[in-house]
Specification:
By secondary structure, this protein is mainly alpha-helical. The chain has three domains: about 1-30 and about 85-405, no CATH class; about 420-570, Tetratricopeptide repeat domain (Serine Threonine Protein Phosphatase 5, Tetratricopeptide repeat, Alpha Horseshoe); about 590-675, Serine Threonine Protein Phosphatase 5, Tetratricopeptide repeat, CATH 1.25.40. The chain contains 33 helices and no strands. The protein has helices spanning about 1-20, 30-35, 50, 70-80, 85-115, 120-135, 140-145, 150-165, 180-185, 195-205, 210-215, 220-230, 230-245, 255-275, 295-315, 320-340, 355-375, 380-410, 415-425, 430-440, 445-455, 460-475, 480-490, 495-510, 510-525, 530-545, 545-560, 565-590, 595-605, 610-620, 625-640, 645-655, 660-675. Helix 8 (about 150-165) packs parallel to helix 10, helix 29 packs antiparallel against helix 30 and helix 32 (about 645-655) packs antiparallel against helix 33 (about 660-675). It starts with a helix and ends with a helix.
């Protein structure tokens, strides 16, 4: 039997690699943008110690700051190994931990089955359970979504804690089983379910007590002893969890708590059905909370929950069926955290990743137990065994085929978001993101069409208005574009994103003074988004704000060492300073009006505006009709926001040369602030 297990396991292992062979080059999506792509901190592996104390290093967006240092560390390692943002290395890392989880699951299931059933098939049943989970189509949603490795690693930590406790009881006195739980706290908040799972394991398999019996008055003392036994783990998880939560930013709670809770039983029905029929998977669902308490879906959900509880209680009373009970308990307990907290999204396919371990365990053991009991009454013929074996491999193949196809859907932004528009047609974010893929291809009318559809469902969604502004700008609808950017700011004033895109739009229109205000606001909200810094450098350079340019470039180098753009601007300033010094030496030997004009421009370029004005005054002393000098004085005063003086200088330049257009443009800027 052992040799057969090894052969089957080897075939399945190769099959799993083939199943996921087409996913390694899939891109970055959703929250990958701010946790990976624009997260400058993962670009330097030396930042790893700071990940454990600085929540701002998890994301470039303040509303997503939090302490998940194990995740950020793993991303920094992937970046370092791959030499940049190469999806292959990020996917390879996630897949490695997924394989580790599936292998560990085999040993955990086998040990649990041995507690209830003494049969030569235990290893085979455990292999079936682990394989069913490994190939399951739903898991593709988690494996393809890179930042969702938090689900993979937290599930691995939970499973490791439970496995160490169950498989190595002699290590309990050293509390080794708590170590993975501590690590898991720094991955995701779901680690609180670990002592609950162990509580029910001890109750069912070590105390050999049914759930109903355990909570009778006579048994409460024994039940409390289990809790006391697990108290060290509970307290340690609480302490570390409080530490990570104290560093967290704003929560993602945005649904009415009561209505969210009312909706979850039906969501559980959906999850349960998806285990058997994973046909309607969507990367971004359009489910909404149920508002009517008499809605049929609420009734269906409650009936399902009642049936689930009855099944758990009934199967817990018999030693042979307790693995079924434990698997269903696993399903329920691990769903509770996302069912109680009123998250922004009612349901998400990647939330099934951890709970499906329980369903895989229950289903394979339940079917196997039925077959074993049947074989005690009637001999299983050879053809029966062939049918059973074939059925298993067909199921695995179908799940694997489904997984392969989901990998293909995740192949590009266009294919992923087009699938979302089909599966979740009332999801404003999904419609917007598909429109974004069309905008990137230059199909602006199509993009605008999808944005307008999205507005019907998400009228107050700031990113949607940002993209509306971008496409309207590309179509030269300047007024509409500005209106969209302003709405984006109105609906999300605490995010840097709408300010950044509005500043970028204004920069393209060469409205640098207005762009400066928006760009500085974006950078004020978060100084960790390099896009904000790059845009400000461009704006400052065009405005001639050399001191500000110098400061922002130096700051960029503090968070992105040897940043090429920052170094370029700093080197440019050093060159300009050198030219200025040479010009100062030369003018002392041979002062002319033209040389003072040239020197004034050099002062202007390095941000020495008062010296620029002084140099122009020297030029005027030598040539009172030098209209270029008056214009340069006007430009410098505009930058210094002394608009009255700027206006006077430009008027003087135009009085000398009425056709001097540059002076007229500068005069227009000055008067815009004095009238």
């Amino acid at each position: 039997m052992q040799k057969k297990i090894i052969v089957i396991a080897s075939i399945l292992f190769i099959g799993l690699i083939i199943t996921y062979s087409n996913h390694f080059d899939n891109g970055f999506y959703f929250d990958d943008d701010h946790t990976i792509i624009s997260n400058v901190h993962i670009t330097d592996i030396k930042n790893i110690p700071d990940f454990f104390v600085n929540p701002q290093m998890f994301s470039s967006r303040p509303d997503h700051w939090g302490l998940r240092p194990i995740i950020t560390t793993s991303l920094a390692i992937d970046y370092w190994v791959g030499g940049g943002l190469k999806p292959f290395y990020f996917h390879l890392s996630t897949f490695f931990w997924y394989l580790t989880l599936c292998i560990l699951l085999f040993f955990l299931c086998r040990k649990i089955f041995q507690k209830s059933l003494d049969h030569k098939w235990n290893s085979l049943i455990a292999l079936l359970s682990a394989s069913l989970y490994a190939f399951h189509t739903v898991n593709a949603e988690t494996i393809n979504y890179i930042i969702s490795r938090s689900d993979v690693l937290s599930t691995l930590c939970i499973t490791s804690s439970v496995s160490i406790y169950i498989i190595y009881p002699k290590l309990r006195k050293w509390f080794i089983y708590i170590i993975p739980a501590i690590i898991g706290v720094f991955v995701k908040e779901t680690m609180a379910v670990t002592p609950v799972l162990l509580f029910f394991y001890i109750l069912l398999f070590e105390k050999e007590t049914s759930i109903l019996k355990a909570f009778r008055v006579k048994e409460l003392k024994n039940t409390l002893r289990i809790i006391v036994h697990l108290l060290p783990m509970i307290l340690i998880i609480i302490v570390f969890q409080l530490y990570t939560l104290s560093k967290a930013g704003e929560s993602g709670f945005s649904n009415p708590p009561l209505q969210y809770l009312m909706t979850q039983p039906y969501v559980w029905v959906h999850y349960f059905i998806s285990f058997f029929l994973p046909f309607n998977l969507s990367a971004d669902s359009d489910w909404k909370v149920i508002t009517n308490i008499f809605d049929d879906r609420i009734i269906i959900g409650l009936i399902f929950i009642i049936g689930l509880v009855i099944t758990i209680l009934k199967t817990s009373s018999n030693k042979e069926t307790r693995p079924i009970s434990f698997g269903l308990i696993w399903f329920c307990i691990t769903l509770l955290p996302t069912s109680i907290a009123p998250l922004a999204e009612v349901m998400n396919d990647h939330r099934m990743f951890l709970p499906f371990i329980g369903l895989s365990l229950s289903l394979t053991y339940g079917i196997s137990l039925y077959i074993i009991n049947y074989s005690k009454k009637r001999t299983l013929k050879k053809e029966h065994k062939i049918i059973l074996s074939t059925s298993f491999f067909v199921i695995i193949f179908l799940f694997g085929y489904g997984t392969y196809q989901r990998n293909e859907i995740w192949k590009s932004s266009e294919s992923l978001w087009h699938d979302v528009t089909l599966k979740s047609p009332t999801n404003g974010r999904g419609l917007m993101n598909y429109g974004l893929t069309q905008m990137e291809k230059g199909n602006y009318p199509t993009a605008l069409e999808y944005y307008e559809k999205a507005l019907r469902y998400s009228p107050y969604y700031s990113p949607l208005h940002i993209n509306m502004g971008v496409v309207q700008g590309a179509l030269n609808s300047t007024e509409k574009a500005e209106e969209s950017f302003k709405k984006a700011i109105q609906y999300d004033p605490n995010s840097d994103t709408p300010y950044y895109f509005y500043a970028r739009f204004l920069t393209k229109k060469k409205r640098y003074i207005d762009a400066r205000k928006m760009g500085e606001k974006a950078n004020e909200i978060t100084v960790y988004n390099l896009n904000n810094q790059y845009l400000l450098m461009e704006i400052y350079d065009n405005l001639g704000l050399k001191n500000e340019l110098n400061n922002i470039a130096k700051h960029t180098l503090t968070i992105s060492k040897n940043n090429p753009l920052a170094l370029k601007y700093l080197n440019k300033k050093n060159t300009e300073i050198s030219d200025m010094n040479n010009a100062e030496i030369e003018i002392k030997n041979n002062p002319t009006s033209e040389k003072y004009i040239d020197l004034s421009l050099k002062y202007y370029n390095i941000g020495e505006y008062l010296k620029c004005i002084a140099s122009c005054n020297k030029a005027i002393e030598l040539d009172p009709n030098n209209y270029v000098a008056y214009n340069n004085i006007c430009s410098a005063y505009n930058i210094l926001e002394e608009y009255q003086k700027a206006e006077e200088a430009c008027e003087k330049a135009i009085s000398i040369n009425p056709n001097f257009q540059l002076a007229r443009n500068n005069l227009k800027v000055a008067r815009a602030h004095t009238q």
